[in-house]
Amino acid sequence: MIITVTLNAAIDKSLSVPNFRLGRRHRTVEQRTMAGGKGVNIARTLKALGQPVIATGFAGGATGTHIVEQLTEESILNDFVRIREESRTNTSVLDPTTGEQTEINERGPAVSEREVELFRDKLLYLARGAAIVVFAGSLPRGVEPDLYAGLIHDLERLDVTTVIDTDGEPLRQAVRAEPDVVSPNVLEAEELVGHEFSGEDERAQVVREIVALGPHEAIMTLPDGCIAQVLVDGHLRSKRARIEPREPIARRGSGDAFLAGYVAARYEGRQPDHCLRLGVACGAESTGRLEAGLIDPREARRLMGDVELSSTEVAAEVG
Ligand SMILES: Nc1ncnc2c1ncn2[C@@H]1O[C@H](COP(=O)(O)OP(=O)(O)OP(=O)(O)O)[C@@H](O)[C@H]1O
Ligand SMILES: [Mg+2]
């Protein structure tokens, strides 16, 4: 079983509004709502890829009930801790005449110490039957930035692979807790190492710097694939995966699809090259869809053939 953790789960509301203009009243021509938040999107992609997954996290109020109902309707197994405050709704307005997308994300609920403790207990219970736990997205208000780090430490005793995709201070603290895999995009990586970078050599160097901060493996996603430091027979190796970038319909959520593809292959016990290939293929496939996390698994597996993989055989000097 794979567990995805979404501490800031949401209802994502997408509105299609032709000729959208600020300060005017509009009518939507199309509208849809979906359960969202990074971990939820990853769970949706994992399910599309045929992997067993349970989505957990916090859900509160009527919106929280809606999140759980939507997941259940999609047959995505879920087990959320109910919280007192209301989960958030994120609204995105797409103007089909220009293709422009405007997003308004609510601040989201604050979570109490007691609710965090309930979650910790639930996660440790669920993780007993899990091979991989994926933490994805921002932390809710009211919790300490070391929450992910603490949960990663808690899971150390169990034989479970921990994967984290977040940003800022929670990411900084989480990498020090030595998770198995960390997967930032370029901006998150720059923030983490504290400097900007450009060019292939510097990028590869930054991924090594990230591994030196604590995680066993690091994968930095790029619009044309990823650069990774992965363990091959116990040795760190540099890998570069490339795919021809496409004209995206929606870029949001491609990192989530990447991580789901990577985790799905890893869960199947595949070699690192195969895992990176499926990740990049799923990321690319997802850019053709508006709905976060919905991919065509057959198309994604077909795209794996378009992913070019190269490795640098020099072992990194880290640790
Ligand atoms: N235009 C594109 N064409 C093809 N593949 C893409 C494109 N954009 C992104 N991808 C794929 O998706 C993966 C994730 O991309 P990116 O680094 O942009 O994620 P991200 O910024 O974390 O996204 P988010 O967090 O919004 O889901 C990359 O590994 C890449 O292979
Ligand atoms: Mg991302």
Give structural notes.
- The strands form 2 sheets. A 10-stranded mixed β-sheet has the order 5-4-1-8-9-10-11-12-13-14, sandwiched between helices.
- It has 10 helices and 14 strands.
- It has one domain (2-20, 28-312): UDP-N-acetylmuramoyl-L-alanine:D-glutamate ligase.
- The longest helix is centred in the middle third of the chain and has 15 residues, at 113-127.
- It starts with a strand and ends in a 7-residue tail after the last strand.
- With 319 residues, the protein is of the alpha/beta class.
- The chain is 36% helix and 27% strand.
- It has helices at 38-48, 61-73, 113-127, 147-155, 168-176, 186-193, 200-212, 254-267, 272-286, 297-303, and strands at 2-6, 10-16, 30-36, 53-60, 77-83, 88-95, 100-105, 132-136, 161-165, 181-182, 217-222, 225-232, 235-242, 308-312.
- The chain is globular.
- Bound molecules: adenosine-5'-triphosphate (ATP) and magnesium ion (MG).
- Residues 185, 221-223, 225-226, 243, 245-246, 248, 251-256, 258, 280, 283-284, 287 line the site of adenosine-5'-triphosphate.
